[in-house]
Input
Amino acid sequence: MSEVRAKVRKFIEDNFLFREDGSAISDDTSLLDAGLIDSTGILELVAFLESDFGLQMADADIVPANLDSIKAIVDYVETKIAKQQAA
Amino acid sequence: MCGIAGFFGAPDASLPRRALLQRMIGAISHRGPDAQGVFTGPHVGLAHARLSIIDLTSGQQPMATADGSLCVTFNGEIFNYIELRDELIARGHRFRTSSDTEVILCAYEEYGLSCVEKFNGDFAFAIADHRNRRLMLARDRMGVRPLFHTTYKGCLYFASEVKALLEVPGVTATLDPYALDQIFTFWFPLAPRTPFKNIEELPPAHVLIAEGGNVTVKPYWQLSYPDAADADAYDNRSAGAIAEELRTLLLDATRIRLRSDVPVGAYLSGGLDSSIIAAAVKQIQPDRLRTFSVTFESEEFDESAYQMDMVRALGTEHSIVPCTTADIGRDFPAVIRSAERPILRTAPAPLMKLSQLAHSSGYKVVLTGEGADEVFAGYDIFKEAKIRRFCAAQPQSKRRPLLLKKLYPYLPQLKTQSQSYLEAFFGAQSDGSDPLYSHLPRFQTTAGAKLFFSAELRKALNGYDAMEELREKLPADFARWHPLSQAQYLETAHLLPGYILSSQGDRVAMANAIEGRFPFLDHRVVEFASRIPPKMKIFGLREKHVLREAMKDLLPAHISNRTKQPYRAPDCQSFVGPGAPQYVKHRMSTGDIATAGYFDPVAVGKLVHKCGNQKFVGFRDNTAFVGVLSTQLWHREFVQGATVASNIPYAVA
Output
């Protein structure tokens, strides 16, 4: 498990899933469809990504394609970090 | 306004019947601190706690007819009692008092069970008909006044509040898991269900008739809307003609609600609806008007600038009470003791402070703007549904969803929200044929809080679907109504009595012996409004359009044109941080959560940690926190009976 994935999963479990049975969501589960993140909860996620990974998220990046599953978030964060390091 | 209680049948003999009635009515004496009375007859007992408002000298209850064949105990008001009294006198009846209570007795003598259809009012009453060995219970059309009942060992018991029923030996409080599931979906249980297993409420606009061992519950009135395909079913007159008649009707609804032998005040929220009512009162009684309002520290919730505008415009004698997050935290257990159910918002707490202010100012009756948002389509949920349907009609349009951003200008969290998330959240693409379409985003977000249910509770629920039960309860012709009518029905027939008029209305007002009266909920206004074409209610995106047009000359222009700001109060921030009340730690502790058994202790622990440490907490977690805490307080109060035993005074100090 990548370090990013572990951190993201833990954040989702602690702050949105709350329950012990963390395996109840897979990396592909849609966080919106599963009722885990509502329209305001997404701002918590953005704040976490910006503070814990040192990212700066443009408004255009705050879209379900980037943030609606653990896998999508991990892909987004890893791509973004790679870009920032390359720059 | 008052409290009522009683039984029909043979109560358990362990307690003398008068003592039983005294205990029952004693549990709700806050509703009527002025006098108490009990009546016992063969197979029946009635009790009454009185808040004297009409006919202060001879209106004592329970009240019997001169021949003793009928006896009534009555909570509320029959506002058209003067007209009914004249009508009954013309038919040969004679009156001994000038009370509306006696009008109920005579109307029953004259019209029998259908007397209730004659009444324009907010009422819950019980009539013991000795000749027919019958008990009749009735409740007003909109559900302003409460009435609960239960059957234990073959005897029927009823009361204004559940706490009176819990005084009956053998009747105990157990949580109904389906009710909790409904509350964690809709904000309230679906009547007749209550959070108390085996205790039901008499639904609004229903009567209960007990005779010969049979109990029948049936509606005597139903909220209905025109068939959308039948253009002639709507009021097809010009907008001007409709507005004019609406104004006349609303002024009359206000006029009969000023009938009282004690002074009547008004609440001022700063919004359109209470401003209209206060202005209408000034039209009818131009002399003195006393008004009351609550203010908040946070700009996000406070409306005091608008309140003061109305005070100046109308020249009222005004009092305010500030409400802080600390007040909400401190008073919340008293709110749950009053509401007798878990709730998902703290908004009733400031209203309890407001009723305390009115009470300590020497008032017993206030008029408010309650009901206008349901009856004239003021809530954002109506506009939200309209925009969602508009988007769904052109799913590829990039411009239509921009309207969603305009919806909630008062929610700071949504201002920074990205377009695609708003679309995803509001489900603009979802199935428009679902009868609950307008409410799906709200219900689905709320139901997210069910995540915290314990494994045992989930097992007891066994896949139960609250939304499916609501769909099954909808009227047969619901599918033929206009989408706005459908959404209005869900708010008016369900949320209004289930939450607004009860947890946020009667219960927090009566905790301080304050009777609210609501001109917008006069059934003549409700019936008239149901036939107004939807486009006159929401004109473009201007909510309550026809109401504004009808009343605009009575108000300052900026109040008359003000966009709806829903009444809200701070939620979980009232219960966390350094100033958090001590009880929160105990009620939300792993031990207490596990003992009650409704929620998962580990998950609740994480929620408490999150709410205490994160600067920003979203809708679902606020909802969950208040829902879990209120359920835990409910459990402590009613299942464990903590404060009943310690006899803590009722009203908030």
The helical segments of chain A are 3-17, 41-52, 64-67, 70-86. The interface with chain B takes residues 14-15, 17-20, 32, 35-44, 47, 59-60, 62-65, 68 of chain A (CB under 8 Å).
